Structures are given as C-alpha cells and as structure tokens.
What we know:
This protein has 257 residues and is of the alpha+beta class. It contains nine helices and eight strands.
Amino acid sequence: MNHQIKVIQALASSLLEGGRGMQGTAFPQQPEKPLQLYEFEGSPFCRRVREVLTLLNLDYEVYPCPKGGQKYRKIVQEKGGKQQFPFLVDENSGVALYESQDIIHYLFQHYGKTGKTPQKFAHYPQLPVVALAGTLVNGARGIWINKKIIDRAAPAELLELWGFEASPFTRVVRATLAELELPFIYHNVAKERWQDMGPAVLRFKPGKYQALAGGKREKVMNVMGRDIQVPYLVDPNTGVKMFESAAIVKYLNKHYG
C-alpha cells in the first residue's frame, strides 16, 4: 500500500507539469560520449533539465547529489567551484554548465533538430512554482540522502535504468536511486507518437504494439526482449535484470540500502 501511495503521488506530480517529460523524438542525436548530469530527483530546477533530455530522447549518466550526499557533491565543487544543481558535463565539447536555463539552451543548440530552443522552453519563470508544487505533492522524495548509507562505496559499475521523466513508476525508482546516492545510466524511452500513449497494458491504439520502424523504441524492445515497459533496471554488478517499480525499489534497498 505504501508503494501504491508513492506511485499516486508521483502521478499527481507529473500531471501538475502538464505531461512534460513524456514525449520525445524517435531519432535522437545521441553524443559519442555520454552526457553527465549531477542532480537530485526532488529539485524543480533539475526536473526542467530532465524534461528536456526526455524531449530530445537522450541517454545520459546520472550522479545523484541529494542533500547530505558525500560522493558527488564534492566532485561538482571540484569541477565547477560550487555546489549548485543541476550541473551538466559534456565531454564531447569540454563544456560544464550550471543554471537550468543555460543547460536547456545548450542541449537544444547541440542536440536538437534545429539548434534553437522552442519558445515554451526558452523562458522559464525564475521561481519554479509548478515544479516545486510537483516536488511537494511527490512527498519531497529524492531530496535527502538515506543517512544509513553515507559511508557506503558506490558500486563498481553504473546501474542502468530505462524510463522517461513523466512516468510515475520510474519517478519512484529514481527517487530511491537518489536517496541511496547510486549513480546510473538513464536510458530515455520517450513516447514517440500517439500509438505509444497509455500504459503498456492498455495503450490508446488497441492490438499488438508496434514501435515506429527505425525509432529508438524499436531498439529498446530488442533490449527488453518484449513489449516496452518502464521502469526496467539492469544491474551489471549482480547480473539482475528486472521490471516493476515495487520490485526494483525493494531490490535497491536490500542490496544498497
């Protein structure tokens, strides 16, 4: 029941944002070296950036920096001179950026189709009232570190998570990863067209699901070995591959909590 409440809160948080972080291009311009994002799940400014990364359908590395975190906040301080989030590192260009709006402009310029920032992403309000409300509705999860794991070393290899920003089930898993300060590779699986809309078991288009030919989702289906369902977690440290947010959260807390 507790997990179901978390999912409902995460769904309400996504609805507050009007569905941002759900749709994305089927043919992303993925950089050669992965983007690195230092952030934490509960930050409304970090959420802005994650929504755009979903729209561009880019995969990237996440280094969680919850309040009280001991690992990656220090790295941000060393690389940028201050502990401010989000912080984006792009080794393809040698760029390191603070400020969500600057990061968003950079992402559209280098990895968007036109090189220009769409109007609705170009001028965010200075005070992110809606995103902040979404954080509160979501129980402020993903803001603070789980104090029981402060001295625990990071796993040898990055975990991998498939999802998209607005997915409530994925949001619950991301919050757990943030609180456990677990770095991971995030594979965006944005919805590419109207046929993708709806939950995996009840999409708007009836019948067997067919991904867009040549699109990113078609490639992801080959990874999952089945229809698209998120979240999907792969832990190369243990060989575990699993679906279902409740099972993933239980696994993460058991092995890393």
